[in-house]
Amino acid sequence: MLFLTYTFEPTRYARDRPEEMWEWMQQRELWFYEGLAMVRGVTWSVEIAPILRIHHFVEFDSEAALAAYRSALADKGRDRAWEARRVEQDTWYTITGKTIQYSPPVGMGFRRRIACPPPASHSA
User: How large is the C-alpha radius of gyration of the chain?
Assistant: First the structure.
């Protein structure tokens, strides 16, 4: 597995309008990745200290899929309407980092399902 990762820092405008920012980002994800079948999936995480940063992971099966993604974005960028919509991102965030990461070559990692204790009963 291959991950193209981005780190975003919200602009002052976005920090003053967090609900609008998250709504815009949800809508952007829908149209931005439309037709990009080489993208296996995307995930997000938010870092809150010392400043708000948003981490975005775009998942691919291979380097060939990443290359196809980059080529497809270049093609989409030639469409003026699509590109005008894409650069709306500058209103909402600044990209402060970009990396490519690979999964380990063997299966590693786990998730635990934590059982919540039942609510405490209150005696009268």
Answer: 19
Q: What DSSP string describes 1-68?
A: -EEEEEEEEE-HHHHH-HHHHHHHHHHHHHHHTTT-TT--EEEEEEE-SSS-EEEEEEEESSHHHHHH
8 Å CB contact between 56 and 42: yes
H/E stretch holding 97 reads strand 93-102
pLDDT, tens digit (0-9, with 9 covering 90-100), for 37-66: 999 999 999 999 888 999 999 999 999 999
Contact assessment for residue 91 and residue 11, using Cβ atoms and an 8 Å cutoff: yes
Residue type, 108: M
Rounded-to-integer distance, Cα 48 and Cα 66, Å: 29
For residue 87, the 8-state DSSP code is: T
**Dihedral (Cα; 23, 26, 27, 29), 10-degree rounding:** 160
Residue at token pair 């270049």: 74
